[in-house]
Amino acid sequence: MPAETHLFSCLKDNYGVLLHDPSTGATASIDAPEAAAVEKALSRTGWRLTDILITHHHADHTGGIEALKKKHLCRVVAPRKEATKIPGVDVTVREGDFVSVGSLTGRVLETPGHTAGHISYWFKQEKLVFVGDTVFSVGCGRILEGTPDMMWQSLLKIRNLPMDTMMYCGHEYTAANVHFALTIEPHNGALRSRAEEVVRMSESGKPTIPTSIASEKTYNPFLRADLHSLASAIGMEGAPPAQVFAAVRARKDKF
Ligand code: ZN
Ligand code: FE
């Protein structure tokens, strides 16, 4: 039986997502932004919480852990490098480790940059990746603890996943990201249609995620820093991709 997901909004602009394995009944919450919102999602779906998979230590991704763990006695999986900053951790993981949710198997990808120990969870067979605050649709996370070079390598790791992988991120920032991306690539046709789609989606109250790796590659400027067209759009022809990426990120910080 194929895996099921349930996406929901919480806090100011966070996303929570449940990953459910129908064959065993196991359910993981990817991050735990807020216990009440996760509880609501559980009662709506009728799923039982067995695991919490944490991407990074920020409070808007971990604030719900303690209350959820107390009630559901679920297992908490977290990045080894940030385990001391995260409450209730049972299992720590690093690059290449496998994490099971019932019969589903996820692989840990270290994607530092937003935080120094940030990880993503890739479920290859299910064609799903949970990237926390590393990549957003049409955007990427702020570099708070790492370097631009580190973040660029993390983005490449996500971009290199199979094209039909569906990406779930931690926030709904797409509309603002589209506005910024259009200042970098105003003539990018894929970006312009994404802009129209995002307007339609937000008018009808629909989430703009998940998105596929294939489509992010066509319109996410941060995943396009090694394209000649993008470098030349910001007057940086011939510069190393990591530098182009850093320049785009710096512009977004000031946008
Ligand atoms: Zn964060
Ligand atoms: Fe966040």
Largest sheet, strands/sense/barrel = 6 strands, mixed
Number of H/I helices: 9
| Helix content, binned percent | 25-40%
Name of the level-1 CATH class of the largest domain? Alpha Beta
Overall structural domain count: 2
CATH architecture of the largest domain: 4-Layer Sandwich
> Can you say what the CATH homologous superfamily of the largest domain is?
Ribonuclease Z/Hydroxyacylglutathione hydrolase-like
Query: Any idea what the radius of gyration is?
Result: 18 Å
Shape, per Cα inertia axes? globular
Runs in which pLDDT lies below 50 for 5 or more consecutive residues are none
CATH overall fold name of the largest domain:
Metallo-beta-lactamase, Chain A
- Biggest sheet, spatial arrangement of strands: 1-2-3-4-5-6
Secondary-structure element order, N to C: EEEHEHHEEEEEEEEHEHHEHHH
* Separation, N- and C-terminal Cα atoms: 45 Å
Q: In what range is the share of β-strand residues? A: 15-25%
Task: Give a count of the beta strands, DSSP E runs of length 2 or more.
Answer: 14
Say which molecules are bound, naming each kind only once: zinc ion, fe (iii) ion
Task: Give the overall pLDDT as a whole number.
Answer: 98
In short:
It is built from nine helices and 14 strands. The chain is an alpha/beta fold. A hairpin with a 4-residue loop joins strand 9 and strand 10 (128-132).
Topology:
Elements: E1 4-10, E2 14-20, E3 27-30, H1 35-45, E4 51-53, H2 59-62, H3 65-72, E5 75-79, E6 91-93, E7 98-101, E8 104-110, E9 119-123, E10 128-132, E11 135-136, E12 139-140, H4 148-159, E13 166-169, H5 174-184, H6 189-203, E14 211-212, H7 213-219, H8 228-233, H9 241-254
Helix pairs in contact: 4-9, 5-6
The protein binds zinc ion (ZN) and fe (iii) ion.
